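In this supplementary section we document a worked example of the pipeline. Step one takes a protein sequence of length 169 as its only input; no multiple sequence alignment statistics are reported here. Step two produces a three-dimensional model, which step three serialises into structure tokens for compact storage. The input and output of this example are shown verbatim.
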Amino acid sequence: ATFRIATAHDSERWVRTWTRRVVRNGHRQSFGMHMDVTEQHRAEAALQRERDRYRFAVDAAGVGVWERSLDGGPRYWNEAMYRLRGLDPSDPRPTNELSALSNHPDDQRVMDEQTLRHLASGEPYGTELRVRWPDGTQRWLATRGRLVDDPSRPDRVMAGINFDITERK
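The serialised model returned by step three reads:
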């Protein structure tokens, strides 16, 4: 269990405890350990606040966040990625199908070539693409991404962002 305790100086400390109960010679005994995890708790809280700030900034700016497995595994889109394509985030279709429906075929080829160059030479991944909304509207998006260096993942993954550049175009 983890709990907090108040100190004499109007602050708090966080404590993690482990306890084990055993019966020895007919007597119940408990033994365990308490460990002060205040600094770990503060670091985790600070990290969560930082994640919340990033999430707010990304959402407020309408930035789409994507992740795709290069080995055919699942893909991820945040809600803004759907909205940048005029789609409802609750759309049940897989994101690879939605990409195929919305990305202009010529621009998809350019993105595929960019991916290969990025993987082969580390060249920055980024381009502009046209997307077709369900109502036929065409919008322009910029995309930026990179290979994710995560040894804990069994597949190779690219992650990045999209943002609307229609007004600029």
